[in-house]
């Protein structure tokens, strides 16, 4: 069926849609032009199927809400799915045919924790082996006790990982009632307006198309049957309520959780809407960050791709190819540049930590960095955070482009590029005196939080980049970065000068940054042969675990993560204690310490770590290689069975 001709559509008159000319154009003696019906965008059906499981997320979150506040359970009722969000024959999340489903085993934290568990299982085994021979029954008894302790701790770790891996969404769709009066809703919208500059680099949302005054007018209209609210506007509205409630009531409050549920409930209709609005880019970028803070990593990736689609559809990735024609156009480009660079920085994060492919390629001739000169009242805080943010994003993105374009066998060249980047990032921190600014109690708390966020982002980039080229145990630079992140988090949550608002706003300090650093420390503990070198690391990890346990009492959804870290800490502590005990007992070590200085762990290097795939190597069966002699692998001297003679020496010395 044809659409109305362009003239009838413009004049808003009824078109007969006759072929080849409609009767209206014949009567007016003008040319009649028909516009072809636009083909359905490719991938719409797939996108619809991929997002159907958003409704499934609601039941899990509802359980967390009911466990937090029993009095609010009456406001949630099971109803039939709304039009446009009806149930379909989508396979359940655990089905092998379901793609893109966000469950616990797809989490990057689960993959890293599983890899660490395998490392512990291969190293934390104090059983009697060819390299340890107990001299007495007492030593053998201690080894048996150590084996029982480690087996018990590994069992607890397995249970914690099972809980983390079983975080799956369910198939029941719920309509959540967010019981807020219009006055209360406007108050939380105001809180969001005051908060948005502290959520990211000042300017990302300040110059965006997010109109807080318009959002304040929505409480009476959003559920009205007489007013049509665009799906994208509805998603932004509930996002604003979520962040306002997050600031005022905290992340564990039932209303905050319900606001996030309303965001997810509104998303399917938004993604199915073919009409793109100016608000969609910022809505997608903000919703991606909201999902990350709630551990919905696969959903955040979909929203991130939505923001990239907006950027490409609006030509923002080619924004500065042509010069501006007016001051008004230049002003509009300021907001687009901030959005582009924000999405570019998030894309870098997805590559380094979530194992996603690069979706954006920055070119200096296509999009310039945001210009600060348009604001004559710009503050020192904004100048510092914006310029540092732009520089580290540019440097990291350029290095990732080099990594992506360099053959994988040229690992030495890549290592030099990564080391160069790390030196530049450390130089930026020194040049802008970020460490001193972070400790300055005279500056506003919001500014201090942004500085701390910037510092931890730099260290996280260093860790992620070093992992791409890491062949052996973590290097000194990687360890320093991991220790600094852990120390900053502990100091942040114990700082008496910071308000509860600061800790509430910066929830990603505990839900994101720790997982960028702690697994590096676990790797160091496993590979380290001197327990004294790891004492401070295990103490810091235990402090992080205590902070996570405290937060999990307020946020039930965070409990599986906290339990996993607590179990890893207990295994680490037992491993260190047993290594320390082995040095004081009468256990004869029959191997040169230099031979195990570099412990053979399945380190994930450049080729594998980008996807964070925690695959287990098959067991090596020596019987399948009978032609290999039992020579020592120490090639510094002649191929003599030195271990055998050392064993004889030990027997003679008894």
Automatic annotation (TrEMBL):
Any one Gene Ontology molecular-function term assigned to this protein's record? DNA-binding transcription factor activity, RNA polymerase II-specific
Naming one, the record's GO cellular component terms include:
nucleus
- Annotated region (Disordered), positions in chain: 64-101
Where does it reside? Nucleus
Is-annotated flag, keyword NAD? no
> What single Pfam family name could you report for this chain, choosing any that match?
Zn_clus
CDD domains xrefs: fungal_TF_MHR, GAL4
SMART domains, alphabetically?
A: GAL4
Main subcellular localization, coarse class?
A: nucleus
Superkingdom of this protein's organism: Eukaryota
Which keywords appear in this protein's UniProt record, sorted alphabetically?
Answer: DNA-binding, Metal-binding, Nucleus
Record domain Zn(2)-C6 fungal-type: where: 4-34
- Write down the PANTHER family for this protein, in alphabetical order: HALOTOLERANCE PROTEIN 9-RELATED, TRANSCRIPTION FACTOR PDR1
This chain's protein is named Zn(2)-C6 fungal-type domain-containing protein
């Amino acid at each position: 069926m044809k659409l109305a001709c362009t003239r009838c559509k413009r004049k808003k008159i009824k078109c007969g849609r006759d072929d080849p000319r409609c009767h209206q154009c014949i009567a007016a003696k003008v040319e009649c032009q028909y516009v072809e019906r636009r083909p359905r965008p490719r991938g719409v059906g797939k996108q619809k199927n991929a997002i159907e499981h958003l409704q499934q997320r609601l039941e899990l979150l509802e359980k967390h809400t009911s466990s937090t506040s029993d009095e609010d359970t009456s406001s949630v009722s099971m109803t039939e799915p709304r039009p446009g969000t009806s149930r379909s024959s989508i396979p359940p999340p655990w089905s092998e045919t379901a793609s893109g489903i966000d469950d616990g085993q797809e989490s990057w934290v689960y993959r890293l924790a599983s890899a660490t568990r395998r490392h512990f299982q291969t190293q934390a085994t104090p059983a009697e082996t060819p390299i340890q021979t107990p001299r007495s029954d007492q030593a053998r008894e201690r080894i048996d006790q150590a084996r029982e302790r480690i087996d018990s701790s590994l069992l607890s770790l397995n249970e914690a990982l099972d809980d983390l891996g079983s975080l799956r969404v369910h198939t029941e769709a719920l309509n959540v009632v967010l019981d807020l009066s219009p006055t209360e809703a406007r108050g939380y919208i105001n809180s969001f307006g005051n908060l948005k500059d502290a959520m990211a680099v000042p300017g990302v949302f300040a110059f965006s198309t997010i109109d807080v005054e318009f959002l304040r007018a929505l409480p009476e209209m959003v559920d009205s049957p007489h007013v049509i609210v665009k799906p994208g506007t509805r998603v932004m509205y509930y996002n604003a309520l979520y962040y306002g409630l997050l600031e005022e009531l905290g992340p564990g409050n039932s209303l905050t959780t319900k606001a996030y549920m309303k965001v997810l409930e509104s998303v399917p209709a938004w993604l199915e809407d073919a009409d793109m609005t100016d608000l969609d880019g910022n809505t997608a970028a903000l919703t991606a960050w909201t999902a990350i803070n709630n551990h919905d990593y696969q959903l955040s990736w979909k929203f991130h791709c939505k923001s990239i689609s907006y950027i490409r559809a609006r030509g923002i990735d080619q924004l500065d190819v042509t010069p501006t024609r007016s001051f008004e156009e230049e002003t509009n480009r300021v907001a687009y540049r901030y959005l582009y660079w924000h999405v570019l920085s998030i894309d870098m994060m997805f590559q380094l930590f979530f194992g996603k492919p690069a979706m954006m390629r920055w070119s200096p001739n296509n999009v310039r960095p945001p210009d600060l000169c348009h604001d004559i009242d710009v503050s020192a805080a904004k100048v510092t955070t914006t310029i540092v943010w732009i520089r580290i994003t540019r440097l990291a993105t350029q290095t990732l482009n080099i990594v992506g374009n360099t053959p994988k066998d040229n690992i030495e060249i890549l290592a030099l590029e990564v080391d160069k980047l790390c030196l530049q990032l450390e130089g930026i921190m020194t040049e802008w005196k970020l460490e001193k600014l972070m400790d300055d109690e005279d500056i506003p708390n919001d500014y201090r939080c942004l500085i701390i966020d910037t510092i931890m982002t730099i260290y996280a980039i260093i860790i992620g980049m070093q992992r791409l080229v890491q062949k052996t145990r973590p290097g000194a630079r990687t360890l320093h970065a991991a220790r600094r992140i852990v120390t900053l988090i502990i100091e942040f949550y114990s700082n008496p000068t910071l308000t509860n608002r600061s800790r509430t706003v910066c929830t990603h300090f505990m839900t994101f940054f720790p997982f960028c650093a702690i697994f590096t420390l676990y790797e160091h503990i496993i590979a380290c042969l001197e327990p004294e070198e790891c004492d401070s690391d295990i103490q810091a990890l235990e402090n992080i675990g205590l902070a996570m346990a405290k937060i999990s009492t307020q946020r039930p959804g965070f409990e599986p993560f906290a339990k996993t870290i607590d179990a890893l800490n207990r295994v680490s502590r037992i491993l260190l204690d047993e290594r320390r005990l082995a040095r004081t007992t009468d256990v004869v070590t029959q191997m040169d310490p230099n031979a195990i200085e570099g412990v053979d762990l399945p380190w994930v290097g450049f080729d594998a770590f980008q996807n964070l795939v925690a695959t287990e190597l098959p067991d090596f069966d020596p019987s399948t290689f009978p032609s290999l002699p039992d020579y020592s692998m120490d090639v510094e001297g002649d191929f003599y069975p030195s271990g055998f003679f050392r064993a004889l020496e030990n027997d003679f010395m008894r």
